[in-house]
Amino acid sequence: MEADGATGQLCNWAGSIQLQDIPEHIKTRAKYLILDGIGCGLVGAHLDWSEIAANGVMAMEGSQQKLPPLPAALLNSTFIQSFELDDWHSEAPLHSNSIILPALFAAAQQQKAKTSRPTSGAELLLSTIIGYEAGPRIGLALHGSHMLSTGWHSGAVFGPPASAIAVSKLLGLSAGTIEDALGIACTQAGGLMSAQYESMVKRMQHGFAARNGLFAALMAQSGYIGIKKVFEREYGGYLSCFSRGNGKEPQWRIDEISKELGETWQTEGIRVKRHASMAATHTTIECIAALQTEHPKMFEDLTKIKSILVELGEASFLHGGFEIKKPLTATGAQMSNRYCAATQLVDGSVLPAQFSHSKLERDEVWELVEKVHCIHNASMGNLYLTRVTVEFDAGTKVVKELAAPRSVTPGLTDEEILNKWRMITAHVLDVDRREKIEGLVLNLDEQGDLMELCALLEKTTTNPIAE
User: Model confidence over 198-253: pLDDT tens digits?
Assistant: First the structure.
């Protein structure tokens, strides 16, 4: 198809780009990001809420064995998103691995079963990078994190077209057919951010995106026609509808979708988490950690803390500044600045172990939660900018302000991502299996058939927070 508007330009780029066109540092970074996504999925596969999801889906599908591609993509995405350990994009929040990897692995296995044609590691790597690039661009066209302020679960909105375009590349679809896949995917987008409070479905909403994008690409491959020019349409178009009432000028920014394609790489904006909580809590955690380091004696007796004030920008406040009460689910705790602040004070870390059922009920944590007050500071336009003020009974105050957490600025290095992978999988994989997966992923472009990696991923793991 001819490049006609942002939709056409994105489809033409995705249809024509080859792995050799991508800079080496982007390909290398993508391998480490993929490894992180796989690690998050392995850690999350047998958490209590993941087991409930798996049992429900398997009961509907009538099988306890291998699932068809659509429910497989849904569940595997749910596992990656199950513990708030997975990646996110720093400017256009979405969890790329949970959207893209499950859809691509399902498509690769479907293709192998139907045609006997193997999918190579190089094909997976290329398709993943295309998804990494498309999702944030579409998100930026909708003003990125502002989607959270309007109540949408941004990744569940940005995700279906990202999944669709990645799978379309894996299937070798033409640019015109990719446009159909995007049109089918975009009409399935959506997700309510109220899922963050007590529900389990927050874990699954990126799974809807992964599944719906896969469905869109497979339907387009079959000849089904989708919405044309889905990003340009003013009446009922993707951008026009999801931006309605956002108060922004311009209402949407369509040029972001195709701007500097192949020159500026959004893959570089994908961040990897150090803490097992929602990204907008990370600066709060690190402000408190810094205060604990700078004033160790003051924090020896936590009962002497009178109050903790957390000042946040709009998106961070609306997303993670809400009031919480006992009993609290792990979902609500991981989304809460108040709970994460108290947990950092008590445990000195916010990792998976802090969200087991028994840990969620601790009196020493809740006594501190009651002292944490989150407010919206309108002068804080930066998404991650946070100021924490801790006041003690004696009237002494200590203050820490950070513009962003370590995972955003400067971001985790490849070596740090590798260390995270080894740490989080230490209790769910044996060493031999871990090393084999690690070697295959970090040499992905040398793998002729993904099935060896798939076989390693399908084996059983354990629940890392089982009590």
Answer: 899 999 999 999 999 999 999 999 999 999 999 999 999 999 999 999 999 999 99
| Polymer length in residues for the chain | 467
Return phi, psi of residue 273, to 5°: -80, 145
For the chain, the structural domain boundaries read 5-272+412-458, 279-408
Query: In terms of Cα–Cα distance, which of 384, 117, 435 is closest to 271?
Result: 384
pLDDT tens column, 10-58? 999 999 999 999 999 999 999 999 999 999 999 999 999 999 999 999 9
Please tell me the CATH superfamily of domain 279-408, with its number: 2-methylcitrate dehydratase PrpD (3.30.1330.120)
- Contact call for residues 120 and 450 (beta carbons, < 8 A): yes
The CATH class given to the 5-272+412-458 domain equals: mainly alpha
Q: What is the pTM of this model?
A: 0.95
Question: Residue 374, SS3?
Answer: strand
Contact at 8 Å (CB) between 442 and 31?
Answer: yes
* Sign of the Cα pseudo-torsion (23, 27, 28, 29, in order): positive
Q: What percent of the chain has pLDDT over 90?
A: 93
Q: How many CA atoms lie within 13 A of 441 on its CB side?
A: 25
Answer whether 292's CB lies under 8 Å from 349's CB: no
Tell me if residue 59 falls in helix, strand or coil.
helix
- Residue 168 · residue 208 · CB < 8 Å: no
* Alpha helix (H) residue ranges in 250-405: 255-258, 282-294, 314-320, 330-334, 337-347, 357-360, 363-369
Single-letter amino acid code for the residue at 37: G
Q: Between 96-115 and 451-458, two packed helices, what is the crossing angle to 10 degrees?
A: 120
**Mind listing the pLDDT tens digit for each residue in 294-304?**
999 999 999 99
Say if residues 331 and 291 touch (Cβ distance below 8 Å): no
- Name the average pLDDT for the chain: 95
Q: Write the DSSP string, 404-417.
A: S-TIIIII--HHHH
Distance (Å, whole) CA 79 – CA 44 = 5
